[in-house]
From TrEMBL:
InterPro entries: 4HFCP_synth. The active site is at 45 (schiff-base intermediate with substrate), 103 (proton acceptor). One of its GO terms (molecular function) is lyase activity. Catalyzes the formation of 4-(hydroxymethyl)-2-furancarboxaldehyde phosphate (4-HFC-P) from two molecules of glyceraldehyde-3-P (GA-3-P). Pfam families: 4HFCP_synth. The keyword Iron does not apply. It catalyses: 2 D-glyceraldehyde 3-phosphate = 4-(hydroxymethyl)-2-furancarboxaldehyde phosphate + phosphate + 2 H2O. Keywords: Lyase, Schiff base. This is (5-formylfuran-3-yl)methyl phosphate synthase.
């Protein structure tokens, strides 16, 4: 079980093995609106700024205060270069907002190991860090062990190029299965995302990740930079229930 912020918010238990729904939102009114749909994690990001575009920390802090522990919250630190001091600074700033999880994209190039080494003390100090690997960047799945070693709480697979299709289109099923099983083996929270559509949900649920993450599928015309759409959100919720 993962307890954060003194344990008043609890991520789902590994024993339960139910897949939760992570919903990405970009502003306070969207966060309050998605709360009504009883999602499992509210993920704060600015989709117009990239795959893991960040919201400014003042906005994040305001949303954390408004949600007031009713749902776990994650936030991204942006599409940043893999320079240890740049990432550590962004993570430290984001941690001050009180979010439960901080998502860090591991983009091609740069100093991955140096970044992990620099983040390890923050993880040891209690920050719940989630590494994000990109399925359309030929992810080396053996790197999952390095996240565990650095003290990360979990790892997500997402896509960088949102026009490249949904995760099951860019990564073969056996690679997705291998990723989930590697995370389980290492007792890391495991998330799958990447332009997922409601039709992708049943097959991915069979892999039993801890979370499936969505932005585009929750929006008008499946446009991740557009507004949330209640019918689209309900279609995703329904696919979860039927899966
Ligand atoms: O963390 C999940 C992402 O926000 C997924 O965004 P997307 O569904 O538009 O690829």
């Amino acid at each position: 079980m993962v307890l954060v912020n003194g344990g008043h918010r609890t991520a789902q238990t590994r024993e339960k093995r139910m897949t939760g729904m992570l919903a990405s939102v970009s502003k306070l009114d969207e966060a309050l609106r998605i709360l009504n749909f009883e999602v499992d994690i509210i993920d704060l990001k600015q989709p117009s700024q990239g795959a893991l575009g960040a919201l400014d920390t003042m906005t994040v802090a305001r949303i954390v205060k408004a949600i007031n522990g009713q749902c776990p919250i994650s936030a991204t630190v942006g599409d940043l270069p893999m320079i240890p001091e740049v990432i550590v600074s962004a993570v430290t700033d984001m941690a001050a907002t009180g979010v439960d999880y901080i998502k860090i994209g591991f983009f091609p190039g740069g100093d991955w190991q140096g970044t992990l080494d620099a983040l390890a003390p923050l993880a040891q100090a209690g920050l719940a860090l989630i590494g994000v690997l990109f399925a359309d960047n030929e992810p080396e799945l053996h790197t999952v062990a390095a996240f565990k070693k650095a003290g990360f709480k979990g790892v997500m697979l997402d896509t960088m190029d949102k026009s490249s299709g949904s995760l099951p289109h860019v990564l073969p099923d056996d690679a997705i299965a291998e990723f989930v099983s590697k995370c389980n083996e290492l007792n890391l929270l495991c998330g799958l995302a990447g332009s997922l559509r409601a039709v992708d949900i049943p097959d991915l649920l069979r892999r039993k990740p801890d979370y499936l993450g969505f932005r585009g599928a929750l929006c008008r015309r499946h446009d991740r930079t557009s507004h949330l759409d209640d019918d689209a959100i309900l279609a995703v919720k329904k696919a979860f229930l039927q899966g």
